[in-house]
Specification:
heterodimer; A: 201 residues; alpha/beta; Aconitase, domain 4; seven-stranded mixed beta sheet; 7 strands; globular; B: 467 residues; Aconitase, domain 3; five-stranded parallel beta sheet; 19 strands
Amino acid sequence: MKPFTTLTAVAVPFDLVNCDTDRIVPARFLRQPRSAGYQNFLFHDLREADRDFVLDRPAYRGARILVAAENFGCGSSREAAVWALAGAGLAAWIAPSFGDIFLENSFKNGIAALVLPATRVTALREQLAASPGAQVTIDLPAQTVRFPDGSLEPFDVDAFRKACLLEGVDEIDLTLKHEGAITAWEARRGAQMPWLARRPD
Amino acid sequence: MGRTLYDRIWDAHAVASGPGGRTLLAMDRHLVHEGSFHAFEALRASGRAVRRPDLTFAVPDHYVPTRARERDPITHPELKDKVDTLAANARRERIAIFPVGDVRQGIVHVVGPEQGITQPGLTLVCGDSHTATHGALGALAFGIGASEVAHVLATQALWQAKSRTMRVLVEGVLPEGVFAKDIILALIARIGAQGGTGTTLEYAGSAIRSLSIEGRMTVCNMSIEAGARAGLVAPDDATFGYLHGLPYAPREDEWEAALAHWRTLRSDDDAAFDAEVALEAGELEPMATWGTSPEHGAGITGVVPDPANEPDASRRESLGKALRYMDLAPGRRLEGIPIQRVFIGSCTNSRLEDLRAAARVVRGRKAVVPALVVPGSGLVKRAAEAEGLDRIFIEAGFDWRDAGCSMCVGMNGDLVEPGERCASTSNRNFEGRQGKGARTHLMSPAMAAAAAVTGTIADVRKLLDER
């Protein structure tokens, strides 16, 4: 996994509340292999219905940060939603809240998914709408976001997720360092509940 | 301070501590379906093997055709490829599979409990957000993404941060015509689609106790629609009765030991929850949704709200978009909205009790719009046919299908046409969820049956009164 430290980039405002992962990638595309490029399906039906879709406006071209509204990425667990956004060049997203599974999926793909207070996210979206193409800086080690107006907003991030992003950790490798503890737990479990590992047929 | 049920299950599965206060949590059960193909590919690419094939179970559901003539063998090449890939992965990794053609095949969240794979106090994960369903039996169950599926395949564990807890207390007696689905839709309307974010819900109170295990599954299933990854009900005699004798449940000589353990799985009376919310069952009405988020729900006597009353600008704009998509005007009464299609099925509402509730409304009436009934598993279908429910549906003009996820998500081609309004017992009314341009109204099986025989969103209580 590629480490994430700081990022200064064009940010794009996305106003939809409760944007679910079905909207990010409609289900009919999920049968595609990852090699098909999930960015080709990103917000597919929204874009088709809206000739002026915000991600397609020239001023936001090359955006690497998405600034979203409440509960972004709710619904289905499809990791394809993260692959589509990341495949389109986005490397970080900021919102007042995220769907829990989407949030987890984001960090697993080396994406910084940052929660800021709702009023500040609204202010940030307003600044980006007023000055299309304006840049935002995310400083993960310092845990701050610099807005286009120069103000600096601190954010909280889970220490585990922060460490994984900064170091680009492979979580499976990390887990396998505890293989002895897993094996010991499994042995106890197997003794207590022998039926769990048994097949009836 | 006492412990919650969530604390108890968590503590029993903590294997190691990691950076940032994370816990490595052991997984007792891992369910996989066709969509898990990404994770199997990732696992293979990293040169790793499945650690515990004996604790992993595969069942095709999302891509499985529901018309008999298209199923076995599957005629659609892309669907066949997805189902065959799951079977090949299961074979290669020596994972138990309930394949198409096996009467046990069905929706993963119907099959797990039905086979006794789901048990109280277990941890259970699946690459599907409706995994919370299994919490109805007192298991800590939650949905995960493809990276986490690969992680569990390789390690049978996951790094987790402890969630907050919320107790949802539902006291009283449900009125006639009001069901488990109405409890959960009312809860989501109350706390919102993100009211449970970062939280594990524990459903309690006399109305939850009075629900069957199937009803509890309907409630837990939609926890994710309130933002919560997991929902739990403490196991009780109803749970133990449900499990007794199921294929994967403890044998007779193990049963008493299992029971003794299961009876300890409850929240202490003095356990503290981070939040509490209470619903009065007796005050609930049959519910229906009017918008494009599961939080957009109201009682059947209610009306479509006016976005102008929403103080927050982005919420106001999103509400306006939802009503334009749904082609509904503010103030419109829910009762009487014409519908063009009905879907009875999904991991929320496709079990025997659901089919009985729908059949009770349908009996002796005719569907006036195309209507689909998709049982949650082959076993549910067989049980329904044994008591003649299939005849009731077929005589009323319903399409009686084979088991799968079907029109909840449309991945197998069972789709709602653009612009059509569908009364659906599924869990999501998202834009395009049931098909591009489809307009979904979520409701209980009895309400969906009422919609089918009237062609409108109808108050099922009136149809039951006519009996």
